[in-house]
Amino acid sequence: MQQSGLRERSKARRRDAIEVAGLRLFTEHGYSGTTLADIAEAAEVSPRTVSMYFPTKLDIALGFTNRGCERLTEALEARQSSQTVVGVLDAFLQKEDQSLDKERKQLVADMMAANPSLPALRTPSVERLIAAVRRALAADLGLPEDHFKTRLGVATLFGVLEAHSSAHLDENTTTSTRRIALDFLAAALATIRATP
User: Fold this and answer.
1) May I ask the CATH class of domain 2-59?
2) Sequential DSSP letters for the chain
3) At what angle do helices 36-43 and 2-29 cross, to 10 degrees?
4) Which residue of 137, 144, 156, 189 has the fewest CB atoms within a 10 Å radius of its CB?
5) Contact between residue 90 and residue 178 where contact means Cβ atoms under 8 Å apart
6) What ranges are recorded for DNA binding (predicted)?
């Protein structure tokens, strides 16, 4: 049993080293200028080991973002009928803020800034989150998923998430950032709901 725990921690450390090496290289040399072999060398593992943990470079580049999308998707899909999307998002962001790895988040932000086409990619994790947000907001608004107001709500929610995420890289932000973001989202959804 103890051997199994040691093995899992060793795998997690290896995976982490590969991801950090990849993010740093993508920042320094660009996404297209970095190979899996480069990442393997920087992480001090074999290229085969990199491929075992991350089948593609994109999995390394967007892994942090994809994991966040998956956690929010799970939270939205597990919500109780009495919970609003804003309430679920509030609980999610509080939990994320408490476990935030600021160093990793900064590394991801730097990598994204150095590779501006990457944030626009819609991975399966992002697609699932968009669908979950659309379903949840449609239910909250009492509208079909493809209704203009629902789509406007989805766009607003993702804009709020982006602004909140960026604010956490600033050392001067406080927990009030989350409250401002959520109050803005709630007001926007109230406006969407009230507009004929």
Assistant:
1) mainly alpha
2) -HHHHHHHHHHHHHHHHHHHHHHHHHHHH-STT--HHHHHHHHTS-HHHHHHH-SSHHHHHTHHHHHHHHHHHHHHHT--TT--HHHHHHHHHHHHHHT--HHHHHHHHHHHHHSTTGGG---HHHHHHHHHHHHHHHHHHTS-TTSHHHHHHHHHHHHHHHHHHHHTTSTT--THHHHHHHHHHHHHHHHHHH--
3) 120
4) 144
5) yes
6) 35-54
Q: Work out the average pLDDT over 107-123.
A: 90
CA distance 107 to 140: 35
Length of the chain: 196
User: Would you identify the CATH topology of the domain 62-194?
Assistant: Tetracycline Repressor; domain 2 (1.10.357)
Q: What percent of the chain has pLDDT over 70?
A: 94
186 token code pair: 């709630």
The domain locations on the chain are 2-59, 62-194
Least confident of 14-18, 115-119, 140-144: 115-119
